[in-house]
Amino acid sequence: MTRMLKRSLEATGNYEVQALNHGARALEVCRTFMPDLVLLDVMMPDMDGGEVAAALSDDSELNAVKIVFLTAIVTKDEVPPTGADISGRTFLAKPVKTADLVACIEAQLHS
Amino acid sequence: MLHRVIDSTAARTAAVYPDRPERVLLVDDNATNLQVLYQTLSGGGYRLSVARNGRQALEIAQKSEPALILLDIMMPGIDGFEICRRLKQDPRTRDSAVIFLSALDDTDNKVKGMQLGAVDYIAKPFDPNEVIARVETHLKIQRLEAQLARRNRQLEADNQHILAAMNEGIFGLDIDGTVVFVNPAAVRMTGCSEQDLLGKPLHALGLFGDSGVLETAYPLYSCLKERRICHNEDSELVRMDGTRFAVEYNCSPMFEDRTPSGAVVVFKDISERKQAERRLQRAYTELEKAHRELRDAHMRLIQAAKLESVGRLAAGVAHEVKNPLAVIQLGVDFLAGIESNDSVVSEVIRDMEEAVERADSVVKGLLDFSRESTLTLRPGDINQVIDHALHLVDHELTRHNIRLEKQLGEGIGTIDLDRNKLQQVFINVFMNAIQAMGREGVLTVKSRMERIDKPDRAGLDGEHFSVGEPVVQVEVLDTGCGIEDESMVFDPFYTTKPTGQGTGLGLSVTRKIIDLHKGMIDIRNRKEGGVAVRITLKMG
């Protein structure tokens, strides 16, 4: 999943992407990579997306980083294709079309 | 009369010899003859009387009613023949047996004596042993006759007693079917008097409701003419006053010396039994209904359990499938972004995109199904919800060349509903109808307010609605291909659509939503073709 995301986003030529498959290493990687935006799954093997998001928000250097949850736990009935705000967080439903993903990222980066 | 057959021996002896010693009267004008007769018979255990002439003989006979009279023919004054004639005329002496004694041993006299009612003739001079033997024989016959007469009287009395005591009505018929006998029960049950019944042909009385005439169709006919026992368990008796009651009857032929002499009809009032039978039948019908309801409830329970487990499974599967699906979606997008002049490649990519969309819609359906457990009920206008759903399928209607007939009732007002979920219901139902019609057809959508008028419209278990309750009724009629198996439509994954056009989940989700609204959905084929979907929702 992450490899495909990285490839799709890099193919647009507009993003530099780093992929991780474990929530636990997210904070550490973010400190060196300093992303503008983090795409997070909610259900991950070691540390869930919610915890990672909380940790990022608590970090003084990283609390400005935009976060988008890309998850299977919401359906397209609940969020439109390009994402929606649910309780202050942005959610995208899996599976997502590349164009919709990009639209959502762009909206977040320019908000 | 069994009790009489097993009487004690003593009683039987008393019955056979009730008048012993028997009185025997000896009549002769000759003293010597009389003396000899007296000596011959004394010691035989008889009570003997003697008379010397006719007048004396008649007097004694009238007074003591002897069992047997030995009578001399040739006597001065009234002769033996005349005495016999008078004896036979007098009721008091009529039963005494007469044996003539005479020296006139010729056939004419014997015949004359017999014609006058004598039982025997002894020629003079007589042999004492012959006299004793003949006297004994005739006394024995006399005794047996008396006994027989008593028996007959007793039998007759017993018969009368039994017939009077019977609850069954009895008609005795002669060979022509004329009533010659009725018992008290028959009189009571028919409401006729004995005079009304006796001497009339039974068929002419019109008592039995199953047939009125003594023709070949009349059941009694076969009994009388063909000598068969006939039986009818389910007849009716029509009383004199026209009222009727249920009877069963038996008709048996009677014979005299193997020649049919008539028939006996025995009939019985069975109206109470019939009533009990009807009560039983009603109870049975109710029991059957209860059983059917129980079975239905059981089936629904199984169905519910099945749906529940499918729901749980579906949620798990859906979630697991979404991740790989996301990878494929992104991969397809990626490949589509690479410039290629190969038309086959772009065709493959387009097919893959469609496949992903379809897989995604299956997953979405599964999730909808497993999730619809709560509603957000708000007062809303059902017609607005229908309109909105119709708007969303508008282009599908146009594309399939389907005419829309909209008959939405006015003044329904607002009811408590979950707008989004009901909208999903109507979209599902409309899309099913559109897909069933294919290239053209008519979609009719009706809504109206009405009252539940029959118990069977209140839901099988009656738990949703009560009779008389006002409800909102929405009907969606199509002119499509219909449903193959009406009982299957709510099963997950049941679909009539060609592969690729439907997941089969739509209606199971639909029903779940209607159930959550405490409403009913009924889907069945229309007589004129196509399908009618009827959704009933609560007003309150």
Q: How would you describe what is shown here?
A:
The complex is a heterodimer of chains A (111) and B (540). Chain A has helices at 2-10, 26-33, 49-58, 98-109; strands spanning 37-40, 66-71, 84-86, 89-93. By secondary structure, chain A is α/β, with parallel strands linked by helices. Chain A has a single domain, classed as Response regulator (Rossmann fold, 3-Layer(aba) Sandwich), CATH 3.40.50.2300. In chain A, strand 1 (37-40), helix 3 (49-58) and strand 2 form a beta-alpha-beta unit. The longest helix of chain A has 12 residues, at 98-109. Chain A is globular, with a radius of gyration of 13 Å. The model of chain A has no long low-confidence stretch (mean pLDDT 86). In chain B, strands 2-1-3-4-5 form a five-stranded parallel β-sheet, sandwiched between helices. Chain B has four domains: 2-162, Rossmann fold, CATH 3.40.50.2300; 167-269, Beta-Lactamase, CATH 3.30.450.20; 281-371, Helix Hairpins; 374-538, Heat Shock Protein 90 (2-Layer Sandwich), CATH 3.30.565.10. Helices cover 48% and strands 21% of the residues of chain B. In chain B, 28% of the residues are buried. Chain B has 540 residues and is an alpha/beta fold. The interface between A and B is medium-sized, with 20 and 19 residues.
Named at the architecture level, the CATH assignment of the largest domain in chain B is 2-Layer Sandwich
Secondary-structure-based class of chain A equals alpha/beta
**Uncertain regions spanning at least 5 consecutive residues of chain B:** 1-16, 212-217, 498-504
Low-confidence stretches of chain A: none
CATH domain topology of the largest domain in chain B: Heat Shock Protein 90
The CATH topology name of chain A reads: Rossmann fold
Largest sheet: spatial strand order of chain B: 2-1-3-4-5
Total strands of chain B: the figure is 17
**Which sheet architecture does the biggest sheet of chain B show?**
5 strands, parallel
Cα-based radius of gyration of chain B, to the nearest Å:
53 Å
* CATH top level label of the largest domain in chain B: Alpha Beta
Query: In DSSP terms, counting alpha (H) and pi (I) runs of 4 or more, how many helices of chain B?
Result: 17
What is the highest CATH level, the class of chain A?
Alpha Beta
The level of helicity of chain A is: 25-40%
- Supply the CATH superfamily name of the largest domain in chain B: Histidine kinase-like ATPase, C-terminal domain
Main β-sheet, spatial strand arrangement of chain A: 1-2-4-3
